[in-house]
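Support request from a user on the community tier.

User writes: "When I paste my structure tokens into the form, the page sometimes reloads and wipes my input. The last time it worked, I copied everything first. Here is what I submitted, just in case something in the input itself triggers the reload:"
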């Protein structure tokens, strides 16, 4: 079985011809040393995973032929990760791990104490694609643009519950098995913590559940992974 996996933004079906862009052709030919006749795995986030054969390849592009489906489409639970960006490498880590662990959408937010005032949305989306390619997933979560938390909460649908990881609740990690299933969002704050006004607003929202993540205060990137693991084990598709 082919070991190379590639995300292709193109419909996939038996016999379907799939064009490669220059970056994909360079990766396959120059990095992975693949050529016509070699087989790889491809997915598009909609049609599952497919075995495909390289028909032609050159510096400026190439083409594949989809042969057969090797895995069905597996979409994640309806879980969003909402987080305040931190240092570049650690923000990259959060996006990669969220994609690996089954977040359906990733939303960076600007809080009162967020250190980063801008993000490269295209770069973070590329990290989500790479994570899905490497972990065997067939779904790539959308990475949204950076928006103020207050604006996001202004238009929040109360039908989507929020799991608020609050460092002020350091102590025994909460068990989530008694919470209702359905649409959720995990909220991770900035390195500087939450402002008093943010705490008041979140505490006043009926759809918000505060949780602690154990006896130690975790870094933001660690808190994201811990929260995703707790939610997936109790309410998601790890059950």
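"...and here is what came back when it finally went through:"
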């Amino acid at each position: 079985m082919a070991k190379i996996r590639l995300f292709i933004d193109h419909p996939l079906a038996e016999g379907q011809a799939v064009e490669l862009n220059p970056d994909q052709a360079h990766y396959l030919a120059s990095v992975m040393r693949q050529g016509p006749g070699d087989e790889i795995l491809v997915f598009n986030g909609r049609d599952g995973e497919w075995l495909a054969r390289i028909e032609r390849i050159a510096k400026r592009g190439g083409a594949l032929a989809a042969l057969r489906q090797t895995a069905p489409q597996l979409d994640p639970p309806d879980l969003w990760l909402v987080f305040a960006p931190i240092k570049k490498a650690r923000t990259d880590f959060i996006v990669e791990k969220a994609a690996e662990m089954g977040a359906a959408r990733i939303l960076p937010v600007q809080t009162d104490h967020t250190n980063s005032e801008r993000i490269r949305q295209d770069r973070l989306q590329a990290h989500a694609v790479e994570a899905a390619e490497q972990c065997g997933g067939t779904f790539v979560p959308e990475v949204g643009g950076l928006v103020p938390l207050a604006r996001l909460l202004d238009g929040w649908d109360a039908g989507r519950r929020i799991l608020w990881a609050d460092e002020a609740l350091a102590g025994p990690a909460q068990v989530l098995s008694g919470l209702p299933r359905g649409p959720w969002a995990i909220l991770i704050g900035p390195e500087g913590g939450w402002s008093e006004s943010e705490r008041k607003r979140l505490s006043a929202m009926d759809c918000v559940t505060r949780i602690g993540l154990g006896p130690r205060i975790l870094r933001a990137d660690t808190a994201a992974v811990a929260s995703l693991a707790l939610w997936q084990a109790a309410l998601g598709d790890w059950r």
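Agent notes: The reload is a front-end session timeout and is unrelated to the input. The helical segments are 22-31, 88-101, 121-135, 149-154, 196-203, 220-235. The mean pLDDT is 93. Escalated to web team.
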